[in-house]
Amino acid sequence: MDHDIPRAGDIHTKSIRRYDPFHDQPAPRKGVSLGRTLMKTLQAINEKIKQGKALVLTAEEVIDFVDQKGAKKAAQEVDVVTTGTFAPMCSSGAYFNVGHSKPRIKISGGFLNGVPIYAGFAAVDFILGATAIPDDDPRNAVYPGKFAYGGGHVIEELVSGKDVVLTVSAYGTDCYPRKKVETRIGLKDMNEAVLFNPRNGYQNYNVGVNLSDRPIYTYMGVLQPRLGNANYSSAGQLSPLLCDPLYRTIGVGTRIFLGGGEGYVAWHGTQHNPSVPRTDLGVPRVPAGTIAVIGDLKQMSPRWLRGTSISGYGVNLSVGIGVPIPILDEDMVRQAAVRDKDIVAQIVDFSHVYPQREPGSLGEVTYAELRQGEISIDGKRVPTASLSSYAKAREIASVLKEWISRGDFLLTECVQRLPGADSGIVPQSLPERPIRAKNPV
Amino acid sequence: MTTTKIVLRFPPELTDQPVTYRLIKEYDLMVNILRGHITPKEEGMLVLELTGPKRQLDQGMTFLAELGVETKRVSKDVKWLKDRCTHCTACTSLCPTDALTVDRETMLVDFDKTKCIACEMCVTVCPYKAMEVQF
Predict the structure, then answer these.
(1) Looking at this predicted complex, what is its ipTM?
(2) Superfamily assignment of B2-73 in CATH?
(3) Nearest C-alpha of chain A: how many angstroms from B129?
(4) Measured distance CA(A13)–CA(A377) in Å, rounded
(5) Out of A371, A383, A389, closest to residue B88 by CB
(6) Which of A41, A48, A260, A273 is the most exposed place for a label (fewest CB within 10 A)?
(7) Which sign, positive or negative, has the C-alpha torsion A63, A69, A75, A78?
(8) What is the pTM of this model?
(9) Where are the domains of chain B?
């Protein structure tokens, strides 16, 4: 571990030298070869899977395997490492095609169980966002606000086999004259129901704390004043993108476990940020890569897709994702076997620093420390909690291992890897520019 | 047998009525006085814990209402809906009595009802509505 970085136990919040992980890093050591001689191919691994001969381990099991047998032997013997994660996922939704009414309708807008849909697509194509809430939801008019129901809950109800009420309206055209439809509808009535999530599976995230004097209600949960608690949200050593930190095999077309069914990585996710400070293993020290994922909602289950109400913040969808990592060389097995104690997260104040978009963190802490329930900040013992279910992440990695071991799930070779640090992708903030007519009248 | 906590408010004209006596004698309820503030001829307040069969409790409550005593139940029970729980652990760091804990090996949450004081922090925090207040 680098020594200049303030560790959580050493931080004195009264004299915060704001740590900027982007600038305060020593440059990564170049020329460290961890063994990239390609030993296996994905095709060969798939052949072994078809024959039931592949050695598949979860991301936790491979840690012990590498400990006992060494990375070189592990790279030869282990074929696939399965990863998993289950948590509220930033940007999620589903698009649908419900078929035409009689007479036909060109939907301009409407609701599923009172939650607004967006219909700016084909006549009977529309999309539902996980964070959408009913027009008459009080939001945080009475602080902090419950956000009891929204898009995420509609999606959960649909995959539970329940019917919802579809209410749509249209301006009517010669070819699509109908102006209004109100009907009960379930997944089985629809042509397509596709889970499409523009940003899921965040590669690492921050630890939220609250330095102010009153409790705050954030997407990182309820944060108690004066460092009352610290919340994190990652599966750590089980997390898909933390086990393939440099996107050696994850990319467009990677087949994954998604919401209980099969899905695919469709694109890099919004805000994908590969050019970040990383540890020697390539693990990012700050939130980095993201994936956009897609899959057939009809295959999925409410065990792995849950409507989520975040007090004072809003509604979301919690998604279960598992990515299989083919072990092609020694590098990959070392990275897949990353441990919680070697993954760090930044402690960020959510009362002022984060909302005001000020840079920097209070320091770093490892997931091993976070997961044991308490960290030390400013000489204070701060209880920790997660928004990401480690127990469910473990279960997903296990289920995916089972699918692959049974020969029911073959790995795919991605057609394009997620953009790496050399891609030049650097997310920027919104450059606000004045709205002004060139020649005002 | 059900136990319920209630807050009674007596208008001045009722403060000399032996209300507690009648709850015990006529409705066979066990009465535990938790708090009392009664001055004759002034508005009075009593916090009682009543225990008895539900039917008699309901009858006792009706008797009080018919008398003109304002009653308000304060008995709260927090229930852990285990099937809804995803074991994310968000509730565990906020529980003031460690009624909600997580096993660090299995990373599974557990709820010890005997330690719960019904502060409802977990109800606010749980993203999956796995904690429910029942009156």
Answers:
(1) 0.90
(2) ACT domain (3.30.70.260)
(3) 8
(4) 8
(5) A389
(6) A41
(7) negative
(8) 0.85
(9) 2-73, 77-134
